[in-house]
Amino acid sequence: MALSEFELIRRYFGAAGAAGAGMLRDDVVLGIGDDGAILRPPPGQDLVAVIDTVIEGVHFPIGSAAAAVGHRALAVNLSDIAAMGATPAWALLSLSLPQADEAWLQDFATGLGRLAGEHGVALVGGDTTCGALAVGIQLLGFVPANGGLRRSSGAPGDWVFVSGTPGDAAAGLAIEMGQAGPGGLDEAWLRDRFLYPTPRVALGGLLRELASACIDVSDGLAGDLGKLAAASGCGAELDVTRLPLSPALIRTVGAEQALERALNGGDDYELCFTIPDARLAEAEARLAGQPTPVRRIGRLVSGSDVKLQRAGAVTGSPHAGFDHFAR
Ligand code: ADP
Ligand code: MG
């Protein structure tokens, strides 16, 4: 590497670097520069820890824009933190790079730093190695003691909701991978839905007070709802006529393919959550007063598996979600 490892870390990830901008937190006793970070969790809070790695050619196409790689690597972790109902605080970055390309590093740090700043996340340490491009981020956050959301606490009769418009990112990835797109605004918008997902952190915080169970949708809505239902010891019914599909997705791939992408496409980073029937009216009122659109799409039922319904009639079972070791 032309740039020394030390200089690279200082320039791009230290307090003076782009990833340090606007994220100084007074609960960081000791940040980047020593053998370890010293962090002071707030009293009365539980620590929530998540980690996700994105690898070039596996999780994002080879040659993806560096800013998008930085954004997505943090966004996927913020999405897990959101699904736990937690407030994000501290990140550790494990970066493997084929070479110290300064323009690439600058854009990467800017993409990562911008999203970190929006969520008040401080980068407190990491590891830098030379190898195939891979970005692992460990993110730590807080919930009030015993207040974290889980997948496993849903019950039969709870209503199933989803945020945003699932399916867009899968269509955006297909366009990124070279599948012919429509061009124009829809194409650009769908690609951005893949490259720059919006983690639903504020929604997750509100759901801590409302939801019985929650999961983030990363591997396909149907499969991830199946995971929530299984963890809760339930089955689920999903009314496909209620799925929130974006106009851009329908215009681009048609109504049937849009449905397929919404059910089985990956990379949405939306939240799928359940609301007990007794709290439905209160929850719908409070959810209507926040900026992220959510829609009621089904219900947990006794039994197992996810069943698809079209206006009350069973139409079949969706495929399972993405599994790295399934093929
Ligand atoms: P050590 O050899 O003791 O593990 P390093 O030289 O790897 O230390 O790291 C020095 C400091 O820089 C540490 O505080 C570490 O957390 C931080 N660091 C290394 N790589 C990164 C990175 N990619 N992002 C943020 N901090 C990093
Ligand atoms: Mg050390």
Strand order of the main beta sheet, please?
8-10-7-11-9-12-13
Number of E-state strands = 13
- What average pLDDT do the residues reach? 93
Q: Return the domain count.
A: 2
**Spans with pLDDT under 50 lasting ≥5 residues?**
none
Architecture (CATH level 2) name of the largest domain: Alpha-Beta Complex
Q: What gap, in angstroms, lies between the N and C termini?
A: 36 Å
Largest sheet: 7 strands, mixed
Order of helices and strands: HEEEHEHEEEHHHEHEHHEHEEE
Strand content: 25-35%
Please identify which CATH superfamily of the largest domain we are dealing with.
PurM-like C-terminal domain
| Rg result | 20 Å
Helix content: 25-40%
How would you describe the overall organization of this protein?
This protein folds into two domains: about 140 residues, PurM-like, N-terminal domain (60s Ribosomal Protein L30, Chain: A); about 170 residues, PurM-like C-terminal domain (Phosphoribosyl-aminoimidazole Synthetase, Chain A, domain 2). Helix 2 packs parallel to helix 6 and helix 5 crosses helix 8. The two termini are about 35 Å apart. The chain contains ten helices and 13 strands. The protein is globular. A hairpin with a 2-residue loop joins strand 12 and strand 13. Helices cover about 35% and strands about 25% of the residues. It is an alpha+beta fold and about 325 residues long. The strands form three sheets. Strands 8-10-7-11-9-12-13 form a seven-stranded mixed sheet. Bound molecules: adenosine-5'-diphosphate and magnesium ion (MG). The site of adenosine-5'-diphosphate has 13 residues, from helix 1, strand 4 and strand 5.
